[in-house]
Amino acid sequence: MSEIRNQDEKAVFEKIKEDLLTPVKTKYWGYNALIVSLLTLIAAALYAYYFQLRDGLGVTAMTDYVSWGIYIASFVFFVAVALVGMLISAVVGLVGQKWITPVGRIAEMIALAFVMMAGIIIVIDMGRPDRLLNVFLHFRFQSPIFWDVTVVTTYVAISTLLLLLPMLPDLGIMRNHLKGEVPQWKWMLYNILSLGWVGTPKQYQILHRTLRVLLILIIPVAMSIHTVTSWLSALTLRAGWDSTIFGPYYVSGAFVAGSGAVLVAMYFIRRGYKLQDYITDYHFDKMGKLMVLVSLVYLYFNLNEFLVPGYKMKTHDAIHLHTLFNGEYSLMFWLTQTFGLILPIVLGLFKKMRKPFPLMLIGASLVIGAWYKRVIIIVPTLIHAHLPIQNVPKDFTEYNPTGMEVTITIGVIATAVLIVAILAKLFPVVPIWETAHEKGVDIEKDL
Amino acid sequence: MNTILKFAAIAVFIFWNTIGLNAQTDWGISDEQKAETLKIPFDQANQEAGEAIFNTQCKMCHNEMSVVPTNTRQLPLSPNLGSQEIQKKNSDGEFFYKITLGHAATGMPPFDRLSEDERWKLVAYIRTFYPEYQPPASISAAPAAEKFVGTIKGLTLDFDTSNGNIKVQLQAVDEMGNPANAKNVKVNIYVKRAFGDFLINTKKTDGQSVAVEQFPLDLPADTNGYVTVIATVDGTTISASKEVKFGEKTHYKNPLDEPSLWGPRDNAPLWLKLTYILVVLGVWLTIGWAVFQIFRIYNLRER
């Protein structure tokens, strides 16, 4: 009896292992095409960045008025998307949701890649990146920018650990079974990263405890990374930023952007790696519901953020709000609110729409909307100077990003995608050991 | 009936006040007050005395006066009192009581702290910008003081730190070039302030070519306890200045020296530093602990 069971288990485990490790071993034509096109975009961005370094920030459309353009908008966007790691693994995971098993690692990879790019684009936004060190030499405890540097660094560290630690058992499996099947350097990498994982009960015990502590720790850290990011604006008196709900407004917006990104990544990974058996319609359905939930929360904060000042229309707020509602930025504003918020909620309510393909489209719409939303948050406020400078050139009150700026920004986004792509090729996107565990296989014996 | 009338009166009164008509136009001057005329001789001495007061008390708002048909000054709101429209509209009494009572609603301060005589002198001075002005016949003007003819060569400025007396001594020669006493020459006395020279008074020299003025005791000295007194001879470039230790030292408290959110790093509030350090330390110690766990896992590897 137990003999049969054992054989069964072995077969199941072999299949899981084979299915989930195939992407690591196989060469894909589409994948290589993706990498090449991303590298092209990055090369173009590097070329443009060379000019920016040589000629200064004058090559961008930023001026004394609009001193934060699409770079900082992208920074906020990156931080926002990065928060999804915390949402999925920590919040949803800790409340005991089991369906996140095949999604968690994808979210964690996205988080790591995007938070790293958040750090990079800040440096790009500096006219003199060689002075970066001054942030640490001449920091002020009182400055939200310094707090931001602190939390971003912390989040990178924890995200790395949260990606690596749950992967240890898988790395052990790969070390044991992939020798000879992958290039030698890859195997060496797995060997080193597996940290001698053999899966003893003691190792599992340490792993579980450490993960639990980190998963709890990441919640306040992630909250503060985006709250502090919002404070960069909200701690000023400027119309559109001077808001008490900016922290939660940003955090809830981040969950929307992040779940959009995860939906897109899930779709393409599932298709590309043929993981239909592991990332199932059920998982998409669950992610779709989560997406609707976080979007509803965000909608609620949007209501507060725009209706409350919109009802009172204080002088400066009124100028700002008219720019958004029926002025210069109204088209961008309403398109963003529609495609980045309202439509996804409405569509996500229908079961038919919570299928992989429609959800991928909705996710893409959310991500693009999220980026534009950050532009809407950052730029229109700056156009109306709080303390007008006298005799400014007319174009100070306009901001149309230059080709250089756009190229560089696209390059950074491409880098984020590239990192996700590399991570998702190097390591199994769906955890082998957890999947096996859920199917009732006791994999400890395997190691 | 009576009560109804009373209520109606109160209602009208409240209405009148709230719509602000009252506040806008009424300086609160009675007809008897309006009917008053200049109480002092319209002569040079009074006009010049009025000018001196105007320069120290009124000019900062009303600026230089000039004879113009209508007031065109927008900013600051204080009108050019040399406007013929204003001159024609106001009786002597009206000017006097406008200066006395001020107009809180529009920003003209009351000057009842000036003596009545000083206020009439102001009116006399203001009226010198009204060619059509007819001074009341009842008061005869005193003969104009004789003017010094000759040349001022220089001035010496003395300051008595024991009582704050500023003494200005002129050196002058007469038409023949012989040393002479310069009488009735106007001397302006200033104190140097951050954004310019602050006029304390305009004085006329006596028979000994000397003008004396008391340094205002309510004027603070700089952070080291010094003030700079300047004297000029009106209408010339002759001047002298002197830095003296006098008056109350200014104690400047730089807000940046206190712990504050806007100050430099070294003055960050303690609570902020503590919060930052404790939170960062706590989080990074936990991260360090997690890294240590990785080592523990590594140590359990199969040998």
Characteristics:
heterodimer; A: 447 residues; mainly alpha; Formate dehydrogenase/DMSO reductase fold; 17 helices; 0% strand; globular; B: 303 residues; alpha+beta; 4-stranded antiparallel sheet; 9 helices; 8 strands
Layout: helices, strands, pairs:
The complex is a heterodimer of chains A (447) and B (303).
Chain A: H1 2-25, H2 29-55, H3 70-82, H4 84-94, H5 101-124, H6 134-137, H7 144-164, H8 168-177, H9 184-193, H10 201-234, H11 246-273, H12 281-312, H13 315-325, H14 330-348, H15 356-383, H16 403-426, H17 432-438
Helix pairs in contact in A: 2-16, 3-5, 3-11, 3-15, 4-5, 4-10, 5-7, 5-11, 5-16, 7-10, 8-9, 10-11, 11-12, 11-15, 12-14, 13-14, 14-15
Chain B: H1 2-18, H2 21-25, H3 31-35, H4 44-57, H5 59-62, H6 84-89, H7 92-101, H8 116-127, E1 151-160, E2 165-173, E3 179-180, E4 186-193, E5 196-204, E6 210-214, E7 226-233, E8 239-245, H9 270-299
Antiparallel strand pairs in B: 1-2, 2-3, 2-6, 4-5, 4-7, 7-8
Helix residue percentage of chain A: over 70%
Mean pLDDT of chain B: 87
Largest sheet of chain A: none
Structure class of chain B: alpha+beta
Based on Cα principal axes, name the global outline of chain A.
globular
Count of discrete alpha- or pi-helical segments spanning 4 or more residues of chain A: 17
The N- to C-terminal Cα distance of chain A equals 23 Å
Q: How many strand segments of chain A?
A: 0
Order of helices and strands of chain B: HHHHHHHHEEEEEEEEH
Total beta-strand segments of chain B: 8
Please report which band the strand proportion of chain A falls in: under 5%, 5-15%, 15-25%, 25-35%, 35-45% or over 45%.
under 5%
- What does the overall shape of chain B look like? flat
Largest interface pair: A-B, 28 and 27 residues
Any idea what the radius of gyration of chain B is?
A: 33 Å
User: Quaternary status of these chains?
Assistant: heterodimer
Q: In this structure, how is the largest beta sheet of chain B organized?
A: 4 strands, antiparallel
Which radius of gyration of chain A do the C-alpha atoms yield?
A: 23 Å
Low-confidence spans of chain A: none
Strand content of chain B: 15-25%
